[in-house]
């Protein structure tokens, strides 16, 4: 018997979505190019940290509603949830989406539904439609194609997949309606119909909006450093205004969405996207600036004490309380500081991971105790209220 859905890509979105659909009684066939990932999932285990996910996957696999494999099979619905990385100078690379589409091409039949969830440049869904009809002209006007971006928060994905509103854009009205009927089976949030191009742009707009707002906070932090003003106090007080809501600055912007998606706009519309492009520059610069501040503190300590300092670099994830290091500014800063290392002792801390291929991970309490300079890069819950002994140099870039 054919499954109801084939999911291509079993990463941070594909696996939770597959487990959620399976929990609603749908037969889901998950596909991933990594045989280790496939093996792990078929054992009812998971390869990523995400609240409530392990339980959902174990249950779905045990009752037989979720099977993982490295190749797709025939189904009624195909969900493309693969990464869209960069090539060249921040140009989006849709080759994974194309490869995923080609992998399901032989199985497509009349009445099937094909949906892209991968973040994509404007026009990607139409490009894939052209590819499908070029290779399988007999399907023209006989299958349904749509775009529906995810908008979930790592660490709360299982809840948000169900409860967040979704924007669903088909290549025509019939496709939009068909896709809405599909998502109604497992999403409780409101489903908003539109066309494919608007849905693609909507995803990029949401993350660019966040990037611009964070850039404003990061720019303020650079100004406040020069003006000898505490940026955290400043923002707290400015936000007492009823129509002002400034975000918190950090050591840059990371993750596979906010630090990436604005480039999907600036690459296609370089002249029009002035603010969006500048925000990317500011947020990237902030990470470089933080690394420079750490180096300055290191030299100042050495001059004052006549010895190299021990430095604790607190946090590697791209945001608080998760294990995801993708596009992480903290990771970039640690690498930048280590490139300049001489005789100093470095303690690298990330409480959400046990070990790392490149960095030796130290327990946060031990690092804070042994270090002369404590640098807070990510506002993990473990660091908030951490008691430090007198005389330590503290560099707080995330409001701990």
Summarize the structure.
This protein has helices at 14-23, 35-42, 53-62, 95-104, 124-135, 157-163, 173-183, 196-227, 231-238, 261-266, 274-305, 329-339, 364-370, and strands spanning 5-8, 28-31, 66-69, 77-80, 86-87, 91-92, 113-116, 144-147, 166-170, 191-195, 310-314, 345-349, 373-376, 393-396. The chain is an alpha/beta fold.
Name the descriptors.
400 residues; alpha/beta; 8-stranded mixed beta sheet; 4-stranded parallel beta sheet; 14 strands; globular
Total number of beta strands: 14
Average pLDDT metric: 96
Q: In terms of per-residue confidence, which ranges show pLDDT below 50 for 5 or more consecutive residues?
A: none
Radius of gyration: 23 Å
Report the helical percentage. Answer: 40-55%
What does this structure look like?
- By secondary structure, the chain is of the alpha/beta class.
- It has 13 helices and 14 strands.
- The chain has an eight-stranded mixed beta sheet, sandwiched between helices. Strands 12-11-13-14 form a four-stranded parallel beta sheet, sandwiched between helices. The protein has a two-stranded antiparallel sheet with strand order 5-6.
- β9 (166-170), α7 and β10 form a beta-alpha-beta unit.
- It is globular.
- It starts with a strand and ends with a strand.
- The relative contact order is 0.08.
- The model has no long low-confidence stretch (mean pLDDT 96).
Structural topology:
Elements: E1 5-8, H1 14-23, E2 28-31, H2 35-42, H3 53-62, E3 66-69, E4 77-80, E5 86-87, E6 91-92, H4 95-104, E7 113-116, H5 124-135, E8 144-147, H6 157-163, E9 166-170, H7 173-183, E10 191-195, H8 196-227, H9 231-238, H10 261-266, H11 274-305, E11 310-314, H12 329-339, E12 345-349, H13 364-370, E13 373-376, E14 393-396
Parallel strand pairs: 1-2, 1-4, 2-3, 4-7, 7-8, 9-10, 11-12, 11-13, 13-14
Antiparallel strand pairs: 5-6, 8-9
Helix pairs in contact: 1-3, 8-11, 11-12
């Amino acid at each position: 018997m054919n499954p109801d859905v084939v999911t291509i890509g079993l990463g941070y979105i594909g696996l939770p979505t597959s487990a959620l659909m399976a929990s609603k009684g749908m037969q889901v066939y998950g596909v991933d190019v990594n045989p280790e990932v496939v093996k792990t999932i078929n054992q009812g285990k998971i390869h990523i940290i995400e609240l409530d996910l392990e339980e959902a996957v174990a249950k779905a696999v045990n009752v037989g509603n979720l099977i993982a494999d490295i190749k797709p099979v025939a189904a009624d619905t195909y969900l493309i949830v693969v990464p869209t990385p960069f090539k060249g100078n921040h140009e989006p690379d849709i080759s994974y989406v194309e490869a995923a589409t080609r992998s399901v091409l032989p199985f497509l039949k009349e009445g099937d539904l094909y949906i892209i969830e991968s973040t994509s440049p404007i026009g990607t869904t139409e490009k894939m439609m052209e590819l499908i009809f070029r290779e399988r002209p007999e399907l023209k006007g006989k299958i349904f194609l749509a775009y529906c971006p995810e908008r979930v928060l790592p660490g709360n994905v299982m809840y948000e997949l169900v409860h967040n509103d979704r924007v669903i854009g088909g290549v025509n009205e019939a496709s939009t309606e068909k896709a809405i009927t599909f998502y109604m089976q497992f999403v409780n949030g409101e489903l908003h119909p539109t066309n494919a191009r608007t849905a693609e742009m909507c995803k990029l707009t949401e993350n660019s909006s966040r990037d611009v707002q964070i850039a404003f906070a990061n720019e303020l932090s650079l100004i406040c450093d020069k003006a000898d003003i505490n940026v955290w106090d400043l923002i707290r007080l400015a936000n007492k205004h009823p129509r002002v809501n400034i975000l918190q600055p950090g050591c840059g912007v990371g993750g596979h969405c906010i630090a990436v998606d604005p480039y999907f706009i600036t690459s296609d519309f370089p002249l029009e996207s002035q603010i969006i492009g500048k925000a990317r520059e500011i947020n990237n610069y902030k990470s470089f600036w933080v690394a420079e501040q750490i180096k300055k503190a290191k030299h100042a300590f050495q001059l004052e004490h006549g010895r190299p300092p021990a430095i604790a670099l607190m946090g590697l994830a791209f945001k608080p309380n998760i294990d995801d290091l993708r596009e992480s500014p903290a990771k970039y800063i640690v690498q930048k500081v280590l490139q300049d290392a001489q005789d100093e002792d470095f303690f690298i801390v990330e409480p959400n991971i046990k070990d790392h291929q490149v960095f030796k991970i130290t327990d946060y309490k031990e690092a804070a105790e042994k270090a002369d300079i404590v640098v807070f890069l990510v506002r993990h819950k473990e660091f908030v209220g951490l008691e430090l002994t007198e005389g330590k140099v503290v560099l707080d870039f995330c409001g701990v």
